[in-house]
Amino acid sequence: MIEKKEVQEIVKNFFSKMGFSNIEMNLANEEDNVIFLDIKTDEPKILIGQNGQTLNNIQQLLKAIIKHKTGFNDFYLNIDINDYKKKKVEYLKEMARYFADEVSLSKQEKILEPMSPYERRIIHLELLKRGDIKTESIGKGKERRVVIKPKF
After folding, report:
1. Is 108 found in the same domain as 57?
2. Is 90 helix (H, G, I), strand (E, B) or coil?
3. What is the CATH number for 22?
4. How confident is the model over 1-24, as a mean pLDDT?
5. What is the pLDDT of residue 111?
């Protein structure tokens, strides 16, 4: 099990070396192998990047650093900056419901924009219990997207 203090020190050092000394950090270790890291900062755009790409890269890099420094390999790291991911999930769920209603009324399928596997999963799970529509993913690689179809 990873020690919270050790992770906090690694994270503080990481962001300090990036020039971010004014960071508020909340570390929740809900399970032995899951670390939730909520970060509040005055400069979130720099850390989040376009479509969250910088945030994803930071998360991967920080996980590698934590693995290297602690020797602990079996854990999942989830970093959220200024609730960006939380807001993104709510937006995706709302969008999924909106388009599902549209498909249900029009009986015409709706092809969504390309999304990451994580984003597609949110859409699929949000619409899973609806009896009037179905979802599937089409395409390959970065062009993979969700299609919402009426259920006949």
Report:
1. no
2. helix
3. 3.30.300.20
4. 84
5. 98
- DSSP letter at 143 equals G
Q: What is the domain-level CATH number for residue 133?
A: 3.30.1370.50
> If you ran DSSP here, which 8-state letter would residue 78 be given?
E
CA dist 145 and 152 (Å) reads 22
Same domain, 8 and 78: yes
Give pLDDT tens digits for 52-79.
Answer: 999 999 999 999 999 999 888 888 888 9
Q: How far apart are the first and last CA of the chain?
A: 50
CA dihedral 49, 53, 58, 61 (to 10 degrees): -150
Average pLDDT value for residue range 101-125:
96
Confidence band, pLDDT 50/70/90 cuts, at residue 30: low
Contact 96/126 with Cβ under 8 angstroms? yes
The DSSP output letter for 61 is H
Q: Are residues 68 and 31 in the same domain?
A: yes
Structural domain of residue 77, as residue ranges? Answer: 4-82
pTM, full prediction: 0.80
- pLDDT(21) > 80: no
Helical ranges in the chain per DSSP H: 4-17, 44-48, 53-70, 84-106, 117-127
**Residue pair 126/88 in contact by the 8 Å Cβ criterion:** no
